[in-house]
Amino acid sequence: MRIPKHLAVIPDGNRRWAEDNGMTRDRGYHSGLNPGVEVFKLCQKHGIEELTFYGFTADNTKRPTIQRLAFTKACIDAVELLTKEDAELLVIGNTDSKMFPEELKPFTNTRKKFGKGGTKVNFLVNYDWKWDINNLNNEEKKAINPIELLKSKDISRVDLIIRWGGRRRLSGFLPLQAVYSDFFIVDDYWPDFSPDHFISALDWYNVQDITLGG
Amino acid sequence: MRIPKHLAVIPDGNRRWAEDNGMTRDRGYHSGLNPGVEVFKLCQKHGIEELTFYGFTADNTKRPTIQRLAFTKACIDAVELLTKEDAELLVIGNTDSKMFPEELKPFTNTRKKFGKGGTKVNFLVNYDWKWDINNLNNEEKKAINPIELLKSKDISRVDLIIRWGGRRRLSGFLPLQAVYSDFFIVDDYWPDFSPDHFISALDWYNVQDITLGG
C-alpha cells in the first residue's frame, strides 16, 4: 500500500459542531484535542513520516475574541499533548504579531525532539500565506525550489491533505507545499473524528495516480 | 444566486477519454475544444466576469512528444476559437522556453479585446508555478498583495475551480490565486463535458459559506 510521506490535516467544523451540540461556538475547539492525538498515533502506526496540523491563521484572528482565545488555547494544549509523544515538533507562524501565543515561541526556531522522536509534526499557528511568501522578496538569490526561500521552508511538500468539516478549499494553507497534494474531504466536523475517516483517506490515496503535475 | 466573479477550469481526462473510446492517448485533446467554447458561452450567459483555462504546464511537456504536440495544438486552436467571441484574451506562460508555441506569443504581453469584449479569458500555456513565483525574487519592493509581483499578476484571485477528470488536486495551478478557491470536482472526463456539470458547480457554489479564510 502506498502511504503518503507527508499528511496534512485541516481540522475544520469546530464551531458548527459546538452549535449542533447546544454550546456556544467557541466551545468546540477543546473537543478537537483528542482527535489530534488520535491522528498522530495513526500516523505513527501507518509509517507516515511527517504530519502538519493547520492550527489557526492570521485571517482567523478576525473572529470574535472569545473564539480567538479558545482556538489559541486549543493550539497551545495540542502542542503540549504532543510533547508527551515520540515526536519532532515545529511550530510555524508569524511570531512578530501579538496574536502569536508566547507559550509556543520556544517551538518555532528549530524542530525539537521529544521522547524517541520519529514522526515530524508541524503546527501552523498564526500562519499567514502572505507573510510566508513575502520572504521570497527578501532573498537576493533565486532558488531552484522556491520552497527553500519560504518562512515555512522546514515544512516539506504535502502528499495528502485531509480536511474535516466538508469545505472544499485550502483556506490559505501552505500554497507552495500544496501544489500537487491530493485532497480528501470528510463532511463530518473535526470533533466528530473517527479512525474510519483516516483509513478511508489512506485507502483513497492508495488508488490515486500520483503524477506530480506530469 | 451568488455567481463566482472568476471561474477556473482544469480540463483533465483527455487521455483516459481517448483510451476509453478506442483511440491513442494523444487523440482526446481535440475533443476538448467544443467543451471550452461551451463553458465560455455559459460564463457569458451567467455573468461570470473572468474565466481561466488550465491549458498545459511545463511539467506536462515531459509527456511523450505525440501528446505534447497534440495538447499544444489544442491550446492554439482553442485560443483561435475564442478570438471569434466577445472576449478579452490573455495567455500566460513561460515564453522563454521552446515549449511555448510561437502562434500564441502575440497574446501574452497584454490582454487583447475581440469583438465587443466583456468576459476576460486567461489561458495558461506552458505555465510553471516555479517560474511564476520566482518573479517575487526580482522585485525590490514588497507588495501588500504578493499576487501583484507574480508573472501571472494580470490573473485575479479565483473564486471557483471546476476540475473535470476526477482528480482532487491543483496540479500546480496558480497557487496564490487559488488560496481561497472553492473546488468542485466532476468525475467525467473533459471531452464528456455536459452543461449539467457547470450548473451543478454553480448551484454548489451558491450554497458555500465564502469566508476568504476568516
From TrEMBL, chains A, B:
Checking Pfam families in the record gives:
Prenyltransf
**Where does this protein come from, organism-wise?**
Tissierella creatinophila DSM 6911
What the record says about family reads: Belongs to the UPP synthase family. Z-FPP synthase subfamily.
Protein name, entry field: Ditrans,polycis-undecaprenyl-diphosphate synthase ((2E,6E)-farnesyl-diphosphate specific)
User: Is Cell cycle one of the keywords UniProt gives this record?
Assistant: no
- Give a yes or no for keyword Translocase in this entry: no
Return one GO MF term. ditrans,polycis-undecaprenyl-diphosphate synthase [(2E,6E)-farnesyl-diphosphate specific] activity
Under InterPro entries, the record lists: UPP_synth-like, UPP_synth-like_sf
Q: Which GO terms describe its biological process?
A: polyprenol biosynthetic process
Q: What Enzyme Commission number(s) does the record list for this chain?
A: 2.5.1.31
Q: Keyword annotations for this protein? A: Transferase
